[in-house]
Amino acid sequence: MKFNSLFRTPWTRKHHEGRKVRASAHQPALALEGLEDRTVLSTMHGLPIPIVSAGAGGNGGAHANIHALENASPNAVGLFGSAHGGGSVGSSANVQNLETRAANALTTLATQLGGVTSATPLTTIQGYLNTAAGDLTGVARMLPGTLGSALRDFSGSLTSVSDTLGVLASNSVSTLGAAPASVQSLLTSVAGTAGDLAGNLTTLAGSTTGDTTALINTITSAVNGSLTNVANNLTTLAGILPGITTTTSAQAQQLLNSVLRDVNASVGTTTSTLGTVAAALPQIAQSSVADAQSLLTNVTNDLGTISTGLGALAGQLTGPLGSPLGATSGLVTNALNDISGTLSTLSSSLNAIAGTLPGLSQSALQTALGEIRLLVGLSNGQVTGLLGSLNLAGLVSDLAGGATGDAGQLVDQLFGLLTQELGGLGGLLGSIGSTTGGLLGGTSGLGSGLGSDLTGLVGAL
What we know:
Blueprint: H1 3-6, H2 33-39, H3 60-72, H4 81-84, H5 92-114, H6 122-140, H7 146-169, H8 181-205, H9 212-240, H10 249-287, H11 289-325, H12 327-354, H13 362-400, H14 405-440, H15 444-460
Helix pairs in contact: 3-10, 5-6, 5-8, 6-7, 7-9, 7-10, 8-9, 9-10, 9-11, 10-11, 10-13, 11-12, 12-13, 12-14, 12-15, 13-14, 14-15
């Protein structure tokens, strides 16, 4: 099978959603008064409309613009029903039904994953994960606002886990018992995050309209679960590669295709979830600065694990891909390391800001939250470029049977152009980090550290 027919490049929600339709400027607002309190977190006044670049999840303009509108004005597009392009729900009862439907899908998944045995086929488990992901996406497209985004992110994390099982299945591992023990641990973890989110959704569905605490708890559970699933998934993926061998370029290419499919789903879900977190933080901080700090700390921890997983994956791919695929093996591993470095840099920067939040004045808090959104948006844009270079290396490998000669030179030249663009972006991120340190006080190392990390990252390219 050819690379471009197998590979999702990059992961997008278009596989699950209808085409977004841009609302006319004269379109009347939708009557969703009963929906806002249950699905949309309001903004903290004074924050600017954020700059959010296209994420690796392929949600780019649409997803970023949703969050920008969402935090700019609660009435900008009829409480965002038209902005999400997924139909509208006009009553609180309908929203409760959707929340219950999502909770039931997740409860079913948790039960199914808890009941698997060594004889369970991996394709059966993939079916469990894909069914739950599809159900969540169907609900999310009818829930405008941050809750809908958070559920889509969790759905994407389930897809990434399914893709890891697909890597094994495509290499003649048919049952859970034949897979490494780490796969069972991954499924147990996913069952846990699914169960936690199901519980919060059930509580939210049973709460009164306007229960901000229940909504925040549900969104927090979704984004934490999403990043935890991705982090554990990448760690598991890296761990199973040493047990896979390839002897021909066709086998190596098949492995590369399935791994890159997984990486696209995982990294796309990561950047999308980061956008959701940045959009939700202002309201969470308005309710409780401690809760906002806790969420941001959890995010940075998961980002660190995701970064480590991508680095480990780059190291493990060298074995099965090295000889059969030639030069493209090195390009793929370099791109994975660069994505890892970018997410590690973001994790360090967000962690530095998180440590300052409890002691900030209201004005400084608003500035910090705005800078978080800007850093996330710019980092997501950088990851998108790096993911594109990774996919390009895979595509050239598929077309050329290993990038050699003119094909290899073409990829090298394109990597050179990408390096120039990232050099400018690294300087911009360094300036933003320095400004953030000055504004927040006591974090003067943030700017220099960020600039240093990015300089090293661009140099590695």
